[in-house]
Amino acid sequence: MNAIETAGILAQFEIMGAVREVKPLGNGLINDTYHVVTEGESPDYVLQRINNAIFQDVELLQHNIEVVTAHIRRKLEADGATDIDRKVLRFVKARDGKTYYRDEGGRYWRVMVYIPDTVTHEAVTPESAHDAGKAFGNFEKMLVDVPEALGETIPDFHNMELRMRQLREAVENDAAGRLDEVRDIVDELERDGDEMCQAERLYREGRLPKRICHCDTKVNNMLFDKQGQVLCVIDLDTVMPSFIFSDYGDFLRTGANFTAEDDPDLSRVGFNIDIFKAFTTGYLESAREFLTPVEIDLLPYAVALFPFMQCVRFLADYINGDTYYKTKYPTHNLDRARNQLALYRDVRRHDAAMAAYIQELLNN
Ligand code: GN1
Ligand code: MG
Hints:
Blueprint: H1 3-10, E1 19-24, E2 32-38, E3 45-50, H2 58-78, E4 101-102, E5 108-113, E6 118-119, H3 126-142, H4 160-173, H5 179-196, H6 198-204, E7 211-213, E8 222-225, E9 230-233, E10 240-242, H7 245-255, H8 273-287, H9 293-297, H10 299-320, H11 332-349, H12 351-363
Antiparallel strand pairs: 1-2, 2-3, 3-5, 4-5, 6-8, 7-10, 8-9
């Protein structure tokens, strides 16, 4: 993006101070993000292009984010918190009063105030896993009484029944002629599919709530201060109503795998119970006071659900001929699917150990 272009976009927002420099920020895969450095005492800003191919309803997306950040801000104020502008994001209004701007090319932009002197982590350690569990649990806790209904920024994002239907459709069509090669995986997924869809059934029976969740709980979606204290949770595009399993289970899917989700060497795939313990300890420190007994009982299910769901999604994409996920080589999605299946199996071997650990935490 050139300087004239950015200047034109920034001019649409009520920012203070003269812009000195605009440079790329972070390593997000979805949106384009820039750090806007200003002269003198004015705050710096973050400029983001919202990927509206993935988030198709930007109005709804920004509405969710406005409601959530305003609610968190009120909670922090009521608690007498200090440094509130470092603990919740602040979005800058565009000239028309909205928190986003659509340019002539149909691209969507938003601006937030940059929080200086922060640190992010890429690697999950027992310590950062504990802090992440506590931070994401606290995020959910602050949002249990959001006064307005929020929408799903990606409809049915973590709906396991939908993901099974998509797999069955892929199998039916066999668009890329790859089905024969993956029959054994499809059969294994079908064997456990019903069990993995229990959250949707419990929801229909009124026994499981949806709450406002983050739905992208990675360790790099938290900001820490220079002393190592968690400041806030960021990357709020997927904040939407979901089962709390989304936040709890998806963190462990990546954080507690001994290797990357696309490692083709399955001997390296496995469930790291130490990360599970640290994350669960932190999560329950902040979340146990609002979770229902059904939600708590199903935490081990949530740990299994996410590698299972991700296997279904990768495999369906492989059968469809790689239309959703970016791939680097022809069997990339297949390697990912096998990796997630291996993780799923290993998680299931820890069902009893996970339940026992959670019980131990509740007894203390
Ligand atoms: C996608 O792009 P990334 O890594 O943030 C996907 C997640 C998957 C993940 C698997 C919108 O997220 O749901 O878990 O890939 N996001 C979307 O690597 O589909
Ligand atoms: Mg991110």
